[in-house]
Amino acid sequence: MNNSGADLFKAALKYSFPVFLGYITIGIAFGLVVVEAGCPWWIALLTSVVMYAGAGQFIAIGLFASGAALPVCVLVQLVVNARHMAYGLTMRKHFAGAGPLKWYLVFSLSDETFALLSSMSDDVVSREKRPRFMALVSLLDQLYWIAGALTGALAGRLIPYNTEGVGFALTALFVVLMIEQILRVKKPALFIIPASAAALCVIFLPSNLSLLAAMAFSLAAVQFFHVDAEKKEAAHA
Asked: Tens digit of pLDDT per residue, the chain (237 long)?
């Protein structure tokens, strides 16, 4: 790959294209939900710029519309977005040499961006250009979401639309990206372990504990799997 910024941008655009397809669609759904809830159109733009939390934004609009108290809103968002703590721990080494870009990389680490960045291989971009490449991918992903949300909010003011079920689009996108990453990484255990942990925690634990417990168990199990795999590779070396 050439060292020019234009080539790096083109590579980031190509790499983030699957998220573009999903975020434009889901962003439009979010914009429609905002208007349907009786909020002004600019709320879709504002939350997408300063909050940028996907599912958290859908939930926030529902909480605002229902008149929930501020402490309740804060607590719900903390629980819903607690998974980002696990993302941050996973990406700590990836962001180590990013310098000032690290602040934006941390802020913009959505589910889908995490799926792209955490599985990035050396054949995508060289290590010295990786921080800038990750920042471009993260920025493009957020711009896709902003464009979709703004389009949906403006269209929702003009076109009557039944928003029932549109919130599930975000879950559908993440499932598609997960399948793509399974095929790319070729380590299905890294995905089977968290999925199994989540299913077991949902079955056997209260709903207010299942998410955090699933993340904690998944992190521990995946870390054990990773260390065990490294030991086996070292033994065969």
From this structure: 555 778 899 999 999 998 998 899 889 989 988 988 888 999 999 999 999 988 889 888 888 887 878 887 887 788 778 778 878 888 888 888 888 999 999 999 988 898 888 878 777 777 788 899 999 999 999 999 999 999 999 988 887 666 666 656 666 766 766 776 677 667 777 778 778 888 888 888 887 677 677 777 777 776 776 655 556 655 665
Segments making up each domain of the chain, as ranges: 5-186, 187-237
Of 203, 149, 119, which Cα lies nearest the Cα of 32?
149
The length of the chain, given as a count of residues: 237
Write out the DSSP string of 71-130.
HHHHHHHHHHTTHHHHHHHHHTTTTTT-TTHHHHHHHT--HHHHHHHHT--TTTS-GGGH
Alpha-carbon span 214 to 64, nearest angstrom: 28
Instruction: Output the pTM of the full model.
Output: 0.71
Calpha distance 236→233 (Å, rounded)? 5
Q: Are 170 and 55 in contact (CB under 8 A)?
A: yes
